[in-house]
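Bench notes, afternoon.
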Amino acid sequence: MNSIEALHHAARQYCIEHAAAWRERYSELGAAGRATLPTTEAKWTYTREAYNAFPRYQSLEAIQNEVERFVPADFRSLEEARSMLALAGETAQSLFTKHTDDTAIAADADEREEFSRFVRNVDELRLAEQQSLPYRRVLGTDEHKKLHCALTEKWGKWYGGYSNRKMLNSEVVTLHDAAMEPPGSYARLRSVLREHGVAHAFELREYGDGYEIPVESAGFTYNGAEGFWTSDSLDWLVYASHESSITFGGQWLIETMRSVLPEFEKYIYKGWDRAAYA
Protein backbone atom coordinates (compact mmCIF):
# COMPACT_ATOMS: atom_id res chain seq x y z
CA MET A 1 0.00 0.00 0.00
CA ASN A 2 1.51 3.31 -1.05
CA SER A 3 1.26 6.58 0.90
CA ILE A 4 -1.76 7.88 -1.04
CA GLU A 5 -3.68 4.66 -0.43
CA ALA A 6 -2.66 4.71 3.23
CA LEU A 7 -3.87 8.30 3.63
CA HIS A 8 -7.24 7.46 2.10
CA HIS A 9 -7.66 4.48 4.45
CA ALA A 10 -6.48 6.59 7.41
CA ALA A 11 -9.02 9.32 6.63
CA ARG A 12 -11.81 6.76 6.47
CA GLN A 13 -10.69 5.12 9.69
CA TYR A 14 -10.49 8.49 11.45
CA CYS A 15 -14.13 9.20 10.58
CA ILE A 16 -15.33 5.74 11.58
CA GLU A 17 -13.57 5.71 14.94
CA HIS A 18 -14.31 9.30 15.95
CA ALA A 19 -17.97 9.05 14.89
CA ALA A 20 -18.35 5.87 16.95
CA ALA A 21 -16.82 7.58 19.99
CA TRP A 22 -19.19 10.55 19.73
CA ARG A 23 -22.18 8.26 19.19
CA GLU A 24 -21.22 6.43 22.37
CA ARG A 25 -20.89 9.73 24.21
CA TYR A 26 -24.35 10.80 23.08
CA SER A 27 -25.79 7.43 24.14
CA GLU A 28 -24.24 7.85 27.56
CA LEU A 29 -25.85 11.28 27.90
CA GLY A 30 -29.22 9.79 27.00
CA ALA A 31 -28.83 6.93 29.48
CA ALA A 32 -27.94 9.41 32.21
CA GLY A 33 -30.90 11.66 31.40
CA ARG A 34 -28.59 14.47 30.28
CA ALA A 35 -29.42 14.65 26.57
CA THR A 36 -32.71 16.55 26.75
CA LEU A 37 -34.52 18.99 29.01
CA PRO A 38 -38.28 19.65 29.30
CA THR A 39 -39.47 23.09 28.23
CA THR A 40 -43.23 23.53 28.12
CA GLU A 41 -45.78 20.72 28.47
CA ALA A 42 -45.09 17.84 26.07
CA LYS A 43 -42.06 19.64 24.63
CA TRP A 44 -38.33 19.35 25.17
CA THR A 45 -34.98 20.65 23.96
CA TYR A 46 -31.45 19.27 23.73
CA THR A 47 -28.96 20.08 26.45
CA ARG A 48 -25.69 21.92 25.72
CA GLU A 49 -23.86 18.61 26.20
CA ALA A 50 -26.06 16.93 23.60
CA TYR A 51 -25.60 19.78 21.12
CA ASN A 52 -21.85 19.36 21.60
CA ALA A 53 -22.05 15.62 20.84
CA PHE A 54 -24.47 14.49 18.14
CA PRO A 55 -23.52 17.14 15.51
CA ARG A 56 -19.97 15.80 15.66
CA TYR A 57 -20.81 12.27 14.58
CA GLN A 58 -23.25 13.58 11.99
CA SER A 59 -20.48 15.71 10.49
CA LEU A 60 -17.99 12.85 10.58
CA GLU A 61 -20.43 10.54 8.80
CA ALA A 62 -20.95 13.17 6.08
CA ILE A 63 -17.18 13.60 5.78
CA GLN A 64 -16.66 9.83 5.49
CA ASN A 65 -19.14 9.67 2.62
CA GLU A 66 -17.38 12.54 0.88
CA VAL A 67 -13.98 10.89 1.36
CA GLU A 68 -15.36 7.65 -0.06
CA ARG A 69 -16.47 9.37 -3.24
CA PHE A 70 -12.75 9.26 -4.04
CA VAL A 71 -10.55 6.25 -4.68
CA PRO A 72 -6.78 6.58 -4.23
CA ALA A 73 -6.23 6.56 -8.00
CA ASP A 74 -8.05 9.92 -8.18
CA PHE A 75 -5.03 11.65 -6.61
CA ARG A 76 -1.84 12.47 -8.52
CA SER A 77 0.30 13.01 -5.42
CA LEU A 78 0.20 12.71 -1.65
CA GLU A 79 -0.02 16.47 -1.30
CA GLU A 80 -2.98 16.62 -3.67
CA ALA A 81 -4.65 13.85 -1.66
CA ARG A 82 -4.10 15.77 1.57
CA SER A 83 -5.53 18.95 0.08
CA MET A 84 -8.59 17.34 -1.50
CA LEU A 85 -9.45 15.23 1.55
CA ALA A 86 -9.11 18.27 3.80
CA LEU A 87 -11.45 20.15 1.48
CA ALA A 88 -13.91 17.25 1.70
CA GLY A 89 -13.84 17.67 5.47
CA GLU A 90 -14.62 21.35 5.18
CA THR A 91 -17.46 21.04 2.66
CA ALA A 92 -19.19 17.66 3.23
CA GLN A 93 -22.91 17.97 3.88
CA SER A 94 -25.85 15.69 4.57
CA LEU A 95 -29.46 15.97 5.69
CA PHE A 96 -28.17 16.11 9.27
CA THR A 97 -25.48 18.80 9.06
CA LYS A 98 -27.69 21.88 8.84
CA HIS A 99 -27.55 23.31 12.38
CA THR A 100 -29.04 26.48 13.83
CA ASP A 101 -27.99 26.13 17.46
CA ASP A 102 -24.75 27.95 18.32
CA THR A 103 -23.28 25.03 20.29
CA ALA A 104 -24.09 22.60 17.46
CA ILE A 105 -22.57 24.94 14.87
CA ALA A 106 -19.39 25.24 16.94
CA ALA A 107 -19.18 21.46 17.43
CA ASP A 108 -19.60 20.87 13.69
CA ALA A 109 -16.88 23.41 12.86
CA ASP A 110 -14.51 21.99 15.46
CA GLU A 111 -14.90 18.44 14.19
CA ARG A 112 -14.25 19.52 10.60
CA GLU A 113 -11.15 21.45 11.66
CA GLU A 114 -9.81 18.44 13.57
CA PHE A 115 -10.32 16.14 10.58
CA SER A 116 -8.66 18.57 8.17
CA ARG A 117 -5.73 18.98 10.54
CA PHE A 118 -5.34 15.21 10.72
CA VAL A 119 -5.21 14.60 6.95
CA ARG A 120 -2.91 17.57 6.33
CA ASN A 121 -0.41 16.58 9.02
CA VAL A 122 -0.48 12.81 9.52
CA ASP A 123 3.12 11.74 8.91
CA GLU A 124 4.65 9.04 6.74
CA LEU A 125 5.55 6.88 9.74
CA ARG A 126 1.92 6.74 10.82
CA LEU A 127 0.83 6.05 7.24
CA ALA A 128 3.32 3.19 6.97
CA GLU A 129 1.46 1.47 9.82
CA GLN A 130 -2.02 1.97 8.34
CA GLN A 131 -4.09 -1.16 7.76
CA SER A 132 -6.42 -1.57 4.79
CA LEU A 133 -10.15 -1.17 5.30
CA PRO A 134 -12.85 -3.02 3.34
CA TYR A 135 -13.57 -1.36 0.00
CA ARG A 136 -16.48 1.08 -0.08
CA ARG A 137 -17.07 3.68 -2.77
CA VAL A 138 -19.86 6.24 -2.60
CA LEU A 139 -21.49 6.59 -5.99
CA GLY A 140 -21.44 9.93 -7.78
CA THR A 141 -24.78 11.70 -8.07
CA ASP A 142 -25.21 11.04 -11.80
CA GLU A 143 -23.95 7.46 -11.52
CA HIS A 144 -26.37 6.80 -8.65
CA LYS A 145 -29.33 8.26 -10.53
CA LYS A 146 -28.58 6.29 -13.70
CA LEU A 147 -28.22 3.04 -11.80
CA HIS A 148 -31.46 3.60 -9.90
CA CYS A 149 -33.26 4.31 -13.19
CA ALA A 150 -31.76 1.19 -14.79
CA LEU A 151 -32.76 -0.91 -11.79
CA THR A 152 -36.34 0.35 -11.99
CA GLU A 153 -36.50 -0.24 -15.75
CA LYS A 154 -35.25 -3.80 -15.33
CA TRP A 155 -37.05 -4.87 -12.13
CA GLY A 156 -39.89 -2.39 -11.69
CA LYS A 157 -40.54 0.11 -8.93
CA TRP A 158 -40.72 -1.54 -5.51
CA TYR A 159 -42.01 -0.37 -2.16
CA GLY A 160 -43.29 -2.17 0.90
CA GLY A 161 -42.54 -5.59 -0.59
CA TYR A 162 -44.52 -5.06 -3.80
CA SER A 163 -43.76 -3.93 -7.35
CA ASN A 164 -45.74 -1.72 -9.69
CA ARG A 165 -45.06 -4.19 -12.48
CA LYS A 166 -46.78 -7.51 -13.15
CA MET A 167 -43.90 -9.91 -13.54
CA LEU A 168 -43.58 -13.61 -14.26
CA ASN A 169 -43.17 -15.73 -11.13
CA SER A 170 -39.90 -17.01 -12.53
CA GLU A 171 -38.34 -13.53 -12.43
CA VAL A 172 -38.84 -12.57 -8.77
CA VAL A 173 -39.88 -14.23 -5.54
CA THR A 174 -40.69 -12.32 -2.36
CA LEU A 175 -40.47 -13.95 1.07
CA HIS A 176 -41.19 -12.84 4.59
CA ASP A 177 -37.75 -12.13 6.03
CA ALA A 178 -38.38 -14.79 8.69
CA ALA A 179 -37.11 -17.15 6.00
CA MET A 180 -33.64 -15.70 6.66
CA GLU A 181 -33.70 -16.38 10.41
CA PRO A 182 -31.91 -19.76 10.39
CA PRO A 183 -28.28 -19.12 11.38
CA GLY A 184 -25.98 -18.47 8.45
CA SER A 185 -28.74 -17.59 5.95
CA TYR A 186 -27.24 -14.22 4.99
CA ALA A 187 -23.77 -15.76 4.82
CA ARG A 188 -25.15 -18.38 2.43
CA LEU A 189 -26.67 -15.64 0.30
CA ARG A 190 -23.27 -13.95 0.06
CA SER A 191 -21.67 -17.31 -0.81
CA VAL A 192 -24.24 -17.94 -3.53
CA LEU A 193 -23.38 -14.61 -5.13
CA ARG A 194 -19.62 -15.17 -4.86
CA GLU A 195 -19.96 -18.62 -6.41
CA HIS A 196 -21.79 -17.00 -9.31
CA GLY A 197 -18.81 -14.70 -9.86
CA VAL A 198 -20.20 -11.63 -8.07
CA ALA A 199 -17.39 -9.93 -6.16
CA HIS A 200 -18.83 -6.42 -5.73
CA ALA A 201 -22.41 -5.21 -5.40
CA PHE A 202 -24.16 -1.88 -5.65
CA GLU A 203 -26.24 -0.97 -2.61
CA LEU A 204 -29.02 1.55 -3.26
CA ARG A 205 -31.44 2.82 -0.63
CA GLU A 206 -34.79 4.58 -0.97
CA TYR A 207 -32.95 7.75 0.08
CA GLY A 208 -29.38 8.79 0.75
CA ASP A 209 -26.19 7.79 -1.02
CA GLY A 210 -25.51 4.64 -3.00
CA TYR A 211 -22.42 2.48 -2.58
CA GLU A 212 -20.21 -0.01 -4.36
CA ILE A 213 -19.15 -2.60 -1.79
CA PRO A 214 -17.68 -6.11 -1.65
CA VAL A 215 -20.36 -8.80 -1.45
CA GLU A 216 -18.85 -9.77 1.92
CA SER A 217 -19.87 -6.34 3.28
CA ALA A 218 -23.48 -6.47 2.06
CA GLY A 219 -26.04 -6.80 4.84
CA PHE A 220 -29.15 -7.32 2.65
CA THR A 221 -31.42 -5.96 5.40
CA TYR A 222 -33.74 -3.01 6.01
CA ASN A 223 -31.95 -0.34 8.06
CA GLY A 224 -34.61 2.36 8.25
CA ALA A 225 -34.47 2.79 4.49
CA GLU A 226 -35.53 0.13 2.00
CA GLY A 227 -32.52 -1.41 0.28
CA PHE A 228 -31.67 -2.80 -3.16
CA TRP A 229 -28.57 -4.77 -4.14
CA THR A 230 -27.49 -5.67 -7.67
CA SER A 231 -24.48 -5.52 -9.99
CA ASP A 232 -23.80 -3.63 -13.20
CA SER A 233 -25.22 -6.53 -15.24
CA LEU A 234 -28.57 -6.17 -13.39
CA ASP A 235 -29.09 -9.92 -13.80
CA TRP A 236 -29.91 -10.37 -10.11
CA LEU A 237 -31.65 -8.43 -7.38
CA VAL A 238 -32.01 -8.54 -3.62
CA TYR A 239 -34.52 -6.13 -2.13
CA ALA A 240 -35.35 -5.64 1.58
CA SER A 241 -38.46 -3.67 2.52
CA HIS A 242 -39.82 -2.06 5.66
CA GLU A 243 -42.69 -4.58 5.57
CA SER A 244 -40.53 -7.52 6.70
CA SER A 245 -39.91 -8.81 3.18
CA ILE A 246 -36.91 -9.91 1.17
CA THR A 247 -37.12 -10.31 -2.60
CA PHE A 248 -34.83 -12.33 -4.86
CA GLY A 249 -34.66 -11.52 -8.55
CA GLY A 250 -33.05 -13.68 -11.24
CA GLN A 251 -33.90 -17.30 -11.92
CA TRP A 252 -30.49 -18.61 -10.90
CA LEU A 253 -30.61 -16.72 -7.58
CA ILE A 254 -34.18 -17.80 -6.83
CA GLU A 255 -33.50 -21.47 -7.47
CA THR A 256 -30.30 -21.50 -5.45
CA MET A 257 -31.90 -19.71 -2.48
CA ARG A 258 -34.83 -22.13 -2.69
CA SER A 259 -32.34 -24.95 -2.24
CA VAL A 260 -30.49 -23.41 0.71
CA LEU A 261 -33.35 -21.91 2.75
CA PRO A 262 -35.18 -24.71 4.57
CA GLU A 263 -38.48 -22.80 4.87
CA PHE A 264 -38.45 -21.02 1.51
CA GLU A 265 -41.93 -22.17 0.45
CA LYS A 266 -43.50 -21.57 3.86
CA TYR A 267 -42.55 -17.91 3.79
CA ILE A 268 -43.71 -16.96 0.29
CA TYR A 269 -44.87 -13.43 1.00
CA LYS A 270 -48.43 -12.78 2.28
CA GLY A 271 -47.70 -9.53 4.12
CA TRP A 272 -45.74 -8.41 7.15
CA ASP A 273 -47.83 -10.22 9.82
CA ARG A 274 -45.89 -13.26 11.00
CA ALA A 275 -49.14 -14.92 12.11
CA ALA A 276 -50.14 -15.40 8.47
CA TYR A 277 -47.37 -17.99 8.07
CA ALA A 278 -48.23 -20.25 11.01
